[in-house]
Design a protein that fits this description.
The structure is a single chain. This protein has 169 residues and is α+β, with helices and mostly antiparallel strands. Helices cover 20% and strands 33% of the residues.
Length: 169
């Protein structure tokens, strides 16, 4: 079960989100390059105590979308377990992985000028063409990756893990 939703007003908030992300204090020593992974900027490894101003706007954007997913799943509410951003410049990638400790993984495409570098799934039947402003929500056990960015454009995503609660009859 994969959900694809579009935030229709993305063009109105894109620059504000990017400005807020670009102002994040990133310690270069927190950027992890392991195996085949290379991610230019992320706040994934920063302590939870670091303020993340982009989250306020982001949560306003995704709240109506996640409420729609609640309705489709017959759930009374959802919980966001952890949120982070990642920026991929030319040559960057995030190899095959999955997410543990949550029901769903989510990727919101803030900046994606070329949809050939959208999220890919190990099982090709799940591959969905995405565009800027899309939120893709999928079971967290599915192996997925960010393919090598061979474009000259930066890709920016905000990812989060979520679980849906209190399923109604």
């Amino acid at each position: 079960m994969i959900f694809l939703n579009s935030f229709l007003d993305h063009s109105k908030c894109k620059q504000e989100l990017l400005d807020s992300i670009n102002n994040m204090p990133i310690d270069p020593s927190t950027i992890k390059t392991s195996g085949k992974d290379k991610i230019s900027r992320t706040d994934f490894f920063l302590p939870d105590t670091v303020e993340r101003p982009y989250l306020n706007l982001f949560k306003k954007i995704i709240d109506p979308i996640t409420k729609k997913i609640c309705t489709k799943l017959n759930s009374s509410y959802y919980e966001i377990l952890y949120t982070w951003f990642q920026q991929y410049n030319h040559g960057d990638t995030h190899d095959w992985h999955n997410h543990t400790g949550a029901q769903f993984a989510n990727v919101f495409f803030v900046e994606l000028e070329d949809n050939s570098i959208g999220t890919e799934f190990l099982d090709p039947k799940y591959n969905i063409k995405v565009k800027e402003g899309d939120l893709i929500t999928f079971p967290s056990y599915l192996y997925h990756r960010s393919p090598i960015n061979l474009t000259k454009n930066r890709k920016t995503v905000i990812s989060f893990n979520s679980s849906f609660k209190d399923f109604l009859e």
